[in-house]
Amino acid sequence: MRKSEHAVIIAGGGPVGLMLAGELALAGVDVAIVERRPNQDINGSRAGGLHARTIEILDQRGIADRFIAEGQKVQTTGFAGVTFDISAFPTRHPYTLGLWQKHIERIMAAWVEELSVPTYRGLAVTDLTQDVSGVTVTLGDGQSLHAQYLVGCDGGRSLVRKAAGIDFPGAEPTTSNIIATAELAELPPEWGIRRDAIGIHSLGRVDYEIRDGKIVYADTGPVGILVTEQNPDATTEPTLDDLRAAMVAAFGTDYGVHSPSSIARFTDAARQAATYRKDRVMLAGDAAHTHPPDGGQGLQTGMQDAVNLGWKLAQVVKGISPQSLLDTYHAERHPVGARVLRNTLAASTLRRDDERTRALRDTVAELLAMDEPRTHFAAMMTGLDIHYDLGEGHALLGRRMPDLDLQTANGPLRLFTLLHDANPVLLNLGRPGAIDIAPWANRVKLIDAEYAGPWTLPALGSVPAPSAVLIRPDGYVAWTDTQPTLADALTTWFGPPTSA
Ligand SMILES: Cc1cc2nc3c(=O)[nH]c(=O)nc-3n(C[C@H](O)[C@H](O)[C@H](O)COP(=O)(O)OP(=O)(O)OC[C@H]3O[C@@H](n4cnc5c(N)ncnc54)[C@H](O)[C@@H]3O)c2cc1C
Predict the structure, then answer these.
(1) Residues 425-462: pLDDT tens digits?
(2) pLDDT tens digit string along 31-53?
(3) Which domains are seen in the chain, by residue range?
(4) How far is the C-alpha of 110 from the C-alpha of 98, rounded, in Å?
(5) Closest atom of ligand 1 relative to the 159 alpha carbon
(6) Residue with CA nearest ligand 1 atom 3
(7) What angle (nearest 5°) sits at the alpha carbon of residue 262, between those of residues 104 and 41?
(8) Ligand 1 atom nearest to 301, measured from its CA
């Protein structure tokens, strides 16, 4: 049964729409997803796993174990062909979790279903109009839905972005790739990645295991194929013949490729929405930014957009915070997306195999062999170094809160468990009972605890121990006791005080 009105409608139930739906549902917001696909199946492989910060945000909601149980821990974070070992990083998840996007989406969709979010499947958003009170969303079946807010999580070709009139400037494509899953009649001499004058190509069984840190491909089953095409201007849906031709150009043979279950094309174009919000319409994920897949950052960046936006939108819908809180979504996430575009453009340029680019790649590799640049890049590629500009202050301000092992009156507690319900937390590590936040007690959880361990941030190293920290629902620090008044920070982030 379809309702005609929701507080928030999300266009698109890919990984980003699902994450946002979960965040809004946890906050008690009436949210629904409109999804064009009839089910959660996806065409092709797409993302191959989760980086450390994305695993942390899932851990903050108590669902990381669901993904870890199905994935494989591996050290594959890297930049421009250089792989980093992040096992010494100060995080509970110092690895990449190898897990195909179809599994990530299946697990996310099950979580969203547990949270009772209605998903209107097999239905596309075809248009929208907005006024001061809300957004009317036209659907493919000619009906419409109304909402206070609409979030476009509808991918790189976002209808929502276009209908809202949001520009999508960026870099035009210079290369095109075909990605496919298919059967091969003949086995190649070896699986893996190779590079030549056309670009980068890879062949590997879809099913694999990690043994002693190495990928060991299954003996049977479908093969994941990635080939750079000679024609960078190819834009149509690729056919089996296109795949065969690209394989012959790249490998000298098509290995008898047949029975494809998916064939798709992607380019190295990089574009970012000029604004992530236009009045009551917001964009997240690929709808807001698309870029080459180098470094595997698209899904991560999108899911983290959703976690940044979710609690803010929930507070605005519930009347706790003014609409201006939504401006911080663009202010914080647009620079993060811009940096991802920049590093993927650089990495995709370094994929080329001419003499000059080879020299540049070798030079970058030499730099990345040094401790400081390597740590800096590894923290960037994992998303562990994200820093929202919340002004001057303690090194923690605007950075991710580490998952500390706390001692409380009720026993030991992992900090991330305090964030499971997506509410803000004020952590008092000073004298128990020294902090009073009665006017915000209905919104902010106050925890007295002890912590005697180190305060170490990825790439930054040791930072001074604060005696109180205000943590936003997305796990970023909004205030420490070295800042001006706590009341101002509470009001800025979690709305004005209420009388008891
Ligand atoms: C070859 C390749 C490899 C990649 N590898 C990685 C990787 O290793 N790591 C990584 O992090 N990222 C990777 N990515 C990127 C990643 O796949 C995307 O960033 C991610 O899927 C974005 O999620 P999303 O939810 O924003 O968009 P999408 O996954 O595109 O989901 C959008 C959803 O909206 C629906 N939709 C579209 N239009 C409408 C409409 N009008 N109405 C209703 N529903 C609609 C679609 O059906 C879809 O379900 C890769 C991408 C490619 C192409």
Answers:
(1) 999 999 999 999 999 999 999 999 999 999 999 999 99
(2) 999 999 999 988 777 899 999 99
(3) 5-170+271-382 (3.50.50.60), 176-267 (3.30.70.2450), 405-494 (3.40.30.120)
(4) 19
(5) 41
(6) 46
(7) 35
(8) 11
